[in-house]
Design brief:
There is one protein chain. The protein has strands at residues 3-7, 10-12, 18-25, 34-39, 46-51, 57-59, 67-72, 77-82, 91-97, 108-112. The chain has 114 residues and is mostly beta strands. Strand 7 and strand 8 form a beta hairpin. The termini are far apart.
Length: 114
C-alpha cells in the first residue's frame, strides 16, 4: 500500500522560504517520476513541479526560478524548496506520482501572509 506523508508547511511572510518534504513508502520510489501539486481555497488542484528518477525537472511557469524540486532516492523522500514566496502561493501542497495515481496524502498547508 502506497503511503505519502507531506510535511514542512507553515505560515511565512511574503519573500520568505519554506522547504517541504514528502516521505513515500510502498512503491519503487527511485524509478517514479514524482511531483508536487497544490490546491488553493476554491480552486482545483494544480501541478507545481515534477522530477524524474534521474533528476530531470519541470516547473509550473509561475514558480520557475523560485521553487526547486529534488529527491533523495536513498530515503524515498521528495523535497520542494520554496523561496521568494508570494501570497498567491498559499495552498495545501501535496506530493504524488506525476500522473497522480497514488492515494493522496493529507497535504501540508502553506500560508504566505504578512
Amino acid at each position: 500500500q502506497v503511503q505519502l506523508v507531506e510535511s514542512g508547511g507553515g505560515l511565512v511572510q511574503p519573500g520568505g522560504s519554506l522547504r517541504l518534504s514528502c516521505a513515500a513508502s510502498g512503491t519503487d520510489f527511485s524509478v517514479r517520476t514524482m511531483a508536487w501539486f497544490r490546491q488553493a481555497p476554491g480552486k482545483q488542484r494544480e501541478f507545481v513541479a515534477s522530477i524524474t528518477g534521474d533528476g530531470v525537472t519541470v516547473y509550473l511557469y509561475s514558480v520557475k526560478d523560485r521553487f526547486t524540486i529534488s529527491r533523495d532516492n536513498s530515503k524515498n523522500t521528495l523535497y520542494l524548496q520554496m523561496n521568494s514566496l508570494k501570497p498567491e502561493d498559499t495552498a495545501v501542497y501535496y506530493c504524488n506520482a506525476r500522473l497522480g495515481f497514488f492515494p493522496w496524502g493529507q497535504g501540508t498547508q502553506v500560508t504566505v501572509s504578512s
